Amino acid sequence: MFVAGTCGAACAAALSACATYQVGAAPAPAAPAQPEAAPGAPGGAPQPATLAYTSDIPIGGGTVFAEQDIVVTQPESGRFRAFSATCTHQGCPVTEVAGGTINCNCHGSRFAVADGVVVDGPADSPLPERPIEVNGEQIFLA
Ligand code: FES
Do 106 and 87 meet the contact criterion of CB atoms below 8 Å apart? Predict the structure, then answer.
């Protein structure tokens, strides 16, 4: 049975902890729901950051963007594709695009620049496609 006055230090600590939760205190300001529009964006619409410029992507090859975990390819002039840069074998990052393939140097898997399918294992599934948007000379993550 609980008797008033027998609580001691444990109750004092519990009550002081409750003092930090004030009823009726002003809530913290909410974070904006949408990122701020880039200056000059038409209509104030948010403008995603540019991933690359089309001139960064060799025709018949591609470029690995390790920080974004994406590889962008240009199988034919003016046609761009993007794939995950994480190898489907054991998860190493693919390191280069050379000889018409996206290459993982961990165990030698190679994937086609056109569609990410396996050209050489040990990987047995394609690189997942990643959505991008090309607008003029700029390539954005979609
Ligand atoms: S993790 Fe890429 S080939 Fe093994």
Answer: yes
pTM for this structure? 0.68
C-alpha distance from residue 88 to each of 42, 74, 103, 111 (Å): 39, 21, 11, 10
Arithmetic mean of pLDDT, 51-80: 95
**Any bridge partners for residue 76, and if so which?**
79
- Any atom of ligand 1 within 6 Å of the Cβ of 127: no
Nearest atom in ligand 1 to 109's CA: 3
* Residue 62: count of CB within 10 angstroms of its CB: 27
Residue 133 has which token pair? 């948007």
Q: What is the pLDDT of residue 40?
A: 41
pLDDT, average across residues 34-42 = 41
pLDDT of res. 101 = 97
Q: What is the bridge-based pairing of β-strands 101-103 and 96-98?
A: antiparallel
CA distances from 103 to 44, 62, 79 (A): 40, 11, 20
